[in-house]
Amino acid sequence: MDREACLRRSTSPFVLDGLRSKVQWWAWCEEAFQKAKAEDKPILVDVGAVWCHWCHVIDETTYNDDEIADIINKHFVPIKVDRDERPDVDRRLQEYAVLVSGQSGWPLTVFMTPEGEVIWAATYLPPRDYGGLPGMAKVLRAVLEAYRTKKGDIKKMAEDLSKEIAAWHNPSEAELDRSVQLDILASLAASFDEEYGGFGTAPKFPPITQLDLLLLRHFYDGKSVYGKMAHATLRAMARGGVYDQLGGGFFRYSTDRLWLIPHYEKLLVDNAELLSLYARAYAHFGDQLYRKTAAGIIKWLDEFMRDPGGGYYASQDADVDGEEGAYYRWTEDELKETLGDLFPKAADMFGLYEFKWPEGRATLSIVRVVPEADLILERLAEARKARKPPRVDTTIYAGWSCAMAKAELEASRLAGIGDKEFALKTLDKIRREAWDGSRLARGLRGGGPVGEGVLEDYAYCALAALEAYSHTGRYLDWGVEVAGAMVDRFLDQGGFRDVERPDPVLKTPHYPVADTPNYSGNALAILACDLLHYATGIRKFRDAAERALKALAGKLARLGPSAAGLAIALDAHLAEPPRTVVVGSAEELLRAALAAYRPLHVVMPVASGWDYPEPSIKAMLAGPKPAAYVCAWGACSMPISDPGRLGEAVRKFRREAYGLE
């Protein structure tokens, strides 16, 4: 049983860091469980990520402690899991952890039997008791004692936990009803933070899907409270410390209610969904702050996250040389030295003396705009270039890169920003190197594919292909291929599973419906199926979306705002999203259609032939050309040849049919 071979099989930078540890880590592999069985030892699983601050802390303190490492190496089989590389293992263990200890997050510390039964779980554990947290030394001894003397109790608890998890993932059918959105919106209004924006209290994650739902309903219903909640939250995030005011891009979440103090990791998938969100918000509201924020995300991509051959890197670390946020935070002396006579204006702009500075270092947020704002930001950004930047995980995950490609294409048409050609280059790379004609790899690393694609990978690539088709008239065939494979391989009686084949240790099927705060896998898959059905007329996709929604509708009512993404997908299923079909060679019409905003609007350029079942397009091709037709809720407009009229038609055609108020 070769531990190093098991580790290197992963190729994950987080897992490979285990080679430098005092703990003799394994990766998540069959051989590790065989070793545990052969030696009758419990298993310690450490789930984390290369970008995670507290994952570094537990490695550098707890697992670097001689006594801790000695106990683990003698009495446990330790396994490291990269939650980015193996989201299926992470999700299942997070569910167990919540049930066992009420805790979840990263690092996730899980103790298991060699058969995969969970004994106990926690998040960060210091070496010894500290600040109300039990020490790892105490926990290791307690787990070892329980494993040796209470195996019957462990097995009974594992059976009960498995039954509870399986019960949640069983189908939960209910009537498909668009009005469930109103219940979610009422819940959002009840939890809305009037003072600081967002919902609830600390910690605050950017509520991506909930904001998308507010934009959708504000567009069609015009209810001022929806606009108020969206504006307040979008502005607070854009001006807060949760957004990097100098380099662009959003951090994972804010630790406080004010959106001021984040954990400083930046994830590609978060920023992809936020780029789409801010581009749509700009197109809807016309607020220049939203365009500037979207442009900041693209600035971050330009500086750190683009692979020259196509594809976007996975994440950027929170730490530099063991210090969280070292790249982003400022002492008062550093600010004064950098800004000179501009410091008083900066102090007013950033509200430097209005908030506490954790560890004597300030995180920059825009409290008020001053005339010198641009100059202040430029000076600080230039000075920051001299600092060592945080580590970037250069893995190109297929789904996340497709999500960002889709977002950058949306931003190019709705806000006039972004690198459209790079986005298309990315899709070409994913199609060429991560897609074998029937299956997606999870991603690309070290010049080749790694892992098996999960549900969100397929769904995001299908959605990105449809968006790319809108711009180019190409890629629709690939979107149909990927979505077809997704339906064939992931859909069953419970909805869309997160993986095609559950891990042999953690066998319970998982049907993701809760947002994390990213769109859930089922929300993405159902949206991809319905949008492709409306575009192509392929009935298989409509039937798949219907089947998944019927299996999950009961969970939507129970989850409420936590499943806002699924509520959007349900709306798209029951209220046919608008399409604009541009027939013939008509660049000006196509540009006008692309620039026009309407929620879930799909643009379809059809220059000549049509190979899909959707019948109306053949009729359009037989009519006058060039021309555009706006189709919504089962009807299409008369042909439009004036680009100036087309944008208005996109916004208004059958708009009243979509209202809920």
Strand percentage lies at: 5-15%
Query: What is the architecture of the largest domain at the second tier of CATH?
Result: Alpha/alpha barrel
Helical proportion?
A: 40-55%
What Rg do the Cα atoms give? 25 Å
Which residues form runs of ≥5 with pLDDT under 50? none
So how many helices?
26
Strand order in space, largest sheet: 1-3-2-4-5
Pairing-aware structural class of the strands and helices? Answer: alpha+beta
Total number of beta strands: 21
Q: Quote the average pLDDT.
A: 95
Q: Main β-sheet: number of strands, strand sense, barrel status? A: 5 strands, mixed
Descriptors:
661 residues, alpha+beta, Glutaredoxin, Glycosyltransferase, Spermatogenesis-associated protein 20-like TRX domain-containing protein, Ssp411, 6-hairpin_glycosidase_sf, Ssp411-like_TRX
Task: Give the helices and strands, then pairings.
Layout: H1 3-10, H2 13-16, E1 26-27, H3 30-39, E2 43-48, H4 53-60, H5 66-75, E3 77-82, H6 87-101, E4 108-112, E5 118-122, H7 136-149, H8 151-169, H9 180-191, H10 208-221, H11 224-239, E6 253-254, E7 262-263, E8 266-267, H12 268-285, H13 288-305, E9 315-316, E10 319-320, E11 323-324, H14 332-339, H15 343-350, H16 373-384, E12 392-393, E13 396-397, H17 398-414, H18 420-434, E14 441-445, E15 448-452, H19 455-472, H20 476-490, E16 491-492, E17 495-496, H21 521-536, H22 539-559, H23 564-574, E18 579-583, H24 587-595, E19 602-606, H25 616-622, E20 627-632, E21 635-636, H26 643-652
Parallel strand pairs: 1-3, 2-3, 18-19
Antiparallel strand pairs: 2-4, 4-5, 6-7, 8-9, 9-12, 10-11, 13-14, 14-15, 16-17, 18-20, 20-21
Helix pairs in contact: 5-7, 10-11, 10-12, 10-23, 12-13, 12-17, 17-18, 17-19, 19-20, 19-21, 20-21, 21-22, 21-23, 22-23, 24-26
